[in-house]
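Possible race condition, two jobs.
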Amino acid sequence: MILIDDIPRLLTLVAAGALAGALLTGCAIDRPALTPAATATPVAAAVLPAPASTGARPAAAVRAAPVQVQSVVAANPAPPVSGSTHGITVTGQGRIQARPDQATIETGVQTQATTAREAQAANNRAMQAVISAIKAAGIPDRDIQTSGLSLSPIIGENQTVQGYRAVNNVTVRVENIDQTGAVLDAAIQAGANMAGSVRFGFKDETSLRNQALAAAAADARSKAAALASALGLQISGIESVVEGTVSIPIPLAAPRAVASASEAVPVEPGEQTITAQVTVVFSY
């Protein structure tokens, strides 16, 4: 007689016996193939044989419920598709020539005396005469600026004070560059004995920078067109533009430590070269 409580144990024994029989008879048990989709592996139901007739009521057949084994294989996600950009990268060089339209003059007065008071007083008188001469040459007050003042002892041998030296320097901006030589001459004739240097520049550097950048952009486009033509490509647009350096040199005239009142000062500004650079990526 089979009790209800014995059914699980009997099912286990039957399944084990079926497996052992398959192994002994050389039957292969196929492993279910793994597929991206979930698949079910059916298991045949086992039927318990009826016990020998003993006069008792036959036991009901017991059928094992099918067992399904789920096999899940995670599919590899597809890599993200990134748009590829085709580009021709070139660096353009721009160069323009321009004549400076203003100058900056550094000049001054140096005086010496036995006492500090005398040295400073003499320097004040000489510097006032120089400034007056510069103004008389047509330079307004706003373009004249004191750039240095000093009063120091003159130390001789045995570390003794031999006198005092006073120095006064001014910076003069000359907007009419053709006046540069005349202004410097006026300062020297008035008593300036420290003609430092002359710098040339431009009143409007922005316009020159833009012209140089435009020339660099045109050079970049010309280079890209030449490359595209040689490679059989067709330029379709511009991916990016990066501005490089823009160079505006500041040339200096030769400095003059001491100038003679009778010596003329020729000044020639010449031309300056402004350069620019841009890097452009052209798409095709």
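Job #2 (started ~2 s after job #1):
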Amino acid sequence: MPPVSPDVASIRSRLLAWYDAHARALAWRAPPGEAGGIDPYRVWLSEVMLQQTTTAHATPYFLNFAARWPTVRDLAAAPDAEVMAAWAGLGYYARARNLLACARAVAGDHGGVFPDTEARLLALPGVGAYTAAAVAAIAFDRPANVVDGNVERVMARLFAVETPVPAARPELRRLAARFVTDHRPGDWAQALMDLGATVCRSRSPLCGQCPLAADCAGFASGAPERFPLKAKKADKPRRHGVAWVIWTRGDGWRWSGGRTRACWAACWACRPATGRPSPRLARRRSPAIGATPGRWSTSSPTSP
């Protein structure tokens, strides 16, 4: 069944009124009605941290970064090792490297001033479509289609989209774009995200508190939590290998460093070897330095 055509103006009006009354107070956010009045550095920093991370977990990291490096120039001048150490615990360390690359590009190529359009933001290193749209809307109050997981869930339920994700994502983006206008675009983006985070939750949605329930096809179906539909996950492969810990006599352990572009890049760990170890290799031990192999296996994909 094709999606219904909701009253865009009515939905926007009700959701913005709800946001005015229920907006989350976040360290990187301006109050409702003041979008565009916040430092784009803080918006960008928060959006990078919030990728694959909850708001509760990211907030203390954001506050620490903002205190240690209060401007993009400060962050650009920071040693890599200090930034990586401050990032520890947020995971996905490629984000920290991209953070530094972007900060240095803004400081070096843009005079320390973030570009104020979605297209120019997208040209910065490490900035993807979502981050560019979020910074353009929230920091500069530019009309932009900001679609994260919360917005996808709201759209999937509002229109009862039957296509499972990830295949549904282009359709969900098109649906979200219907509501983007030049009236309070920053507040609209944050209102949708807040609705998804606090009311239109993944589990146990609070439909009785939702300002859009009257227009929601998912709610009308009687099973809003069914949406968004998810495709069946493929079976995870099982990998095997050997991890080596090497030490020198009288000088302690020697750990191998992470590969430069892998998931664990810039981290220190036992370097695994791919494949199954032979019994003869597993029994060997170097007489010069001492090297002890340990077998491992995992059901999760590993970096090549």
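Residues 137 and 186 are 4 Å apart (CA to CA).
Logs attached separately.
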